[in-house]
UniProtKB/TrEMBL annotation:
CDD domains, per the entry: crotonase-like
Protein's UniProt name: Putative enoyl-CoA hydratase/isomerase
The organism of origin for this protein: Gordonia crocea
A GO molecular-function descriptor: isomerase activity
SUPFAM superfamilies per the UniProt record, alphabetical: ClpP/crotonase
Keyword flag Isomerase: yes
InterPro entries: ClpP/crotonase-like_dom_sf, Enoyl-CoA_hydra/iso
Length: 263
């Protein structure tokens, strides 16, 4: 069932896509804590088999994808260390659940993706930006260190030396640079970012979901695997899928020269 009631309107479902609006325009497009909580609840339902979305789409609810954490809320917290630890734990729980699903993740990175917003783009499998998209670590600007996995994902995306320079100097990364570095998958006109990201998400959701999820799983495990272990994992995966409905239909459709009807 995909009609489970999410904990927040920031989480919605349609066409096999679980859409999470990660930012709140009321707070200057800062990270939306309610959206994180709602997404976590929906992802737990996915893990438990109570939802059946095939793709996760991360979007921004305002003019930016996400301008980072709500710094005003940081400053107003009675116990800042405890408050920041709680926020980081909540974000990391959601990201861990996304990783567990092996679902493809599409990101609509319009406008600014700063701080936690930049971290969120780095978990995307397909990330669409606009001509005006800009990214910035932002953490050192407020005397803090990265969260959201940035110190793990950015070096693996852009290389260790470049990641160190970007994070330590708090460098602004333009859309063109983000595309060159492999953070963005493609750039479209600013007004088309959300539309294009959703097109990709819907296309993936209508595709061979078992094969796509298995592929995502292989890609996500590869950084920690040896080449030999990855050979074994790939062999086991392609063998398993060849005897399952998706693989059977794909091969039969290819031989029959017809479009596959994915189960």
């Amino acid at each position: 069932m995909t009609d489970s009631s999410p904990a927040t309107p920031s989480v919605s479902t349609a066409d096999g896509v679980l859409t999470i609006a990660v930012s709140n325009p009321a707070n200057g497009t800062a990270l939306d804590d309610d959206a994180i909580a709602g997404a976590t609840a929906a992802l737990i339902e996915l893990r438990e088999g109570r939802r059946d979305e095939q793709v996760i789409l991360l979007v921004g609810a305002g003019k930016n994808f996400c301008a980072g954490g709500n710094v005003a809320a940081f400053a107003g917290a009675e116990d800042r260390p405890a408050y920041l630890l709680e926020l980081a734990d909540q974000l990391h729980t959601m990201l861990g659940l996304i990783n567990e699903t092996s679902l493809p993740v599409v990101v609509a990175a319009k406008g600014w993706a700063a701080g936690a917003g930049m971290s969120l783009t780095l978990i995307g499998d397909v990330v669409v930006g606009g001509t005006s998209t800009k990214m910035r670590p932002a953490y050192s600007g407020i005397g803090l260190t990265p969260d959201g996995g940035m110190t793990w994902t950015l070096p693996r995306t852009v290389g260790a030396a470049r990641a160190r320079a970007i994070i330590l100097t708090n460098r602004i990364v333009t859309a063109e640079q983000a595309l060159e570095y492999g953070i963005l998958s493609e750039i479209v006109d600013d007004e088309r970012v959300d539309e294009r990201a959703r097109e990709i998400a819907v296309e993936l959701a209508a595709g061979p979901s078992a094969a796509l999820q298995a592929t995502v799983g292989l890609l996500r495990q590869s950084p920690a695997a040896s080449l030999s272990a990855q050979f074994d994992a790939e062999g086991a995966s392609i063998s398993r899928l060849s005897g399952e409905p998706t693989g059977i239909e794909g091969v039969d459709a290819f031989l029959a020269k017809r479009a596959p009807q994915w189960p």
